[in-house]
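Pasting as-is:
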Amino acid sequence: MDKIKGKVVVITGASSGLGEAATRLLSAKGAKLVIGARRKERIDALASELTQAGGDVLALVTDVTKRAEVQALVDAAVERHGRIDVIINNAGLMPNSLLERLKVDDWDQMIDVNIKGVLYGIAAALPYMQRQKSGQFINVASVAGHKVRRSSAVYSGTKHAVRVITEGLRQEVKPYNLRTTIISPGAVATELPDSITDPEVEQMARETYKTAIPADSFARAVAFAIDQPDDIDINEILFRPTVQEY
């Protein structure tokens, strides 16, 4: 994966799950990483571990619902390395519930993290990439962005929004030679079910996640998208466990 070595990659939600797996694999492939997450202790420990192993990893506490913090994460990458090659807008949560339960706070949180967090990442990185005339956005959606089922209406709505926003971005950035990738995982072993506050829905999710595949499956999809020649733009990857029906 020679195209990955030396690339400057910013990752949100990097302290666990998909973000941590991508951080580990890309660091092993020689990328220069600037990673963000809310949990300082975990993100610092990850950066320290990978740096001691010979990687180039900088960690900053980042809450993607705060635009200034996302901007600071991207600015730090440019200040440290002089450019940004890839941003992986990965931070997300999934507090699913039936709409009739009126868990409006959960709805607001999903909109703030899953949609606005991605938009803040785009807003932070796009001006740099336009000036460079190079760069790649990797935005994390979900199988739920392709399908909806009982209890996932709001989550599915946010992840479909990620797909729509990214497709619109793809069309706009062609004059700047930028690439855009949507990655939509199925059941992958992460902490997503932990964010569900409805006991009945949480139990349903736990059943689905019994067949979850490791998070490094996502990391390999990320690496595949980044590793393509400059004239190839992998626009969307949808993957699931082989046994997953939904």
